[in-house]
Amino acid sequence: MTQPVAVVTGASSGIGAATARRLAAEGFEVFAAARRLDRLERLAAETGVRPVELDVTDDASVAALAARLPECAVLVNNAGGARGLAPAAETEIEDWRWMYEVNVLGSVRMVQALLPAMLKHGRGHVVNITSVAGHAVYEGGSGYTAAKHAQRALSETLRLELNGKPVRVTEIAPGMVRTEEFSLNRLGGDADRADAVYRGVAEPLVAEDIADCVAFAVTRPPHVDVDLLVVRPLAQAASHKVHREN
Ligand code: 8X3
């Protein structure tokens, strides 16, 4: 029996890498896609996933991946990220543009490219990794919360438009997840500020916690659509309300 195909974007680290690893363990043939092929090759050697160089902001790159996949069962739109924590009035327009390109337009491009392969498979599942930032705004988060709200709007619109077709749409909205790169990228590589995001938090989520949610959603029976999972660490009651121990 051939294995169902799952595509995971942003698979070179963090939630994407953990999801690729987990879906391979669940029996999917996983195409682990990202820009950094060297990292993907290491993941592939460990887990048997197929490494694919992909830039979700580039039409040709996305089309090249789609051309390799006549059928696809699951698409996990995980590629994304945040840039900056400045007040809106002081943000860089370029940061807004980058966040919109990767989080939002990257997801749209992937859906457009892979939907035919999902329909060919006879069943499909789009899993969008958004954020609690797609559900509430917070100071310093303007460009990121705007992009994540848009990615959330895409998830909800798709579910309406695909009604009647055998394609599920799940949004997973993580809160504070401690990964190697998320805060470091957001803060321009400032390791001290990145560490401070998690300082005193007993147990932030880890990438595997979100991979677990993806695995749950995609392994439900086909008639069950998990619309939305909002997942935070116990210490985070809201984006701005985090219990920290000294
Ligand atoms: C990451 C969670 O709280 O930094 O998507 O917006 S948060």
Automatic annotation (TrEMBL):
Keywords: Oxidoreductase
GO MF: oxidoreductase activity, acting on the CH-OH group of donors, NAD or NADP as acceptor
InterPro entries assigned: NAD(P)-bd_dom_sf, SDR_fam
One Pfam family named in its UniProt record: adh_short
Superkingdom, taxonomy of origin: Bacteria
Signal peptide annotation: none
Entry annotated with the keyword Ribonucleoprotein: no
Family matches, as PANTHER family: ALCOHOL DEHYDROGENASE (PTHR42901)
Family note: Belongs to the short-chain dehydrogenases/reductases (SDR) family.
Name of the protein in question: SDR family oxidoreductase
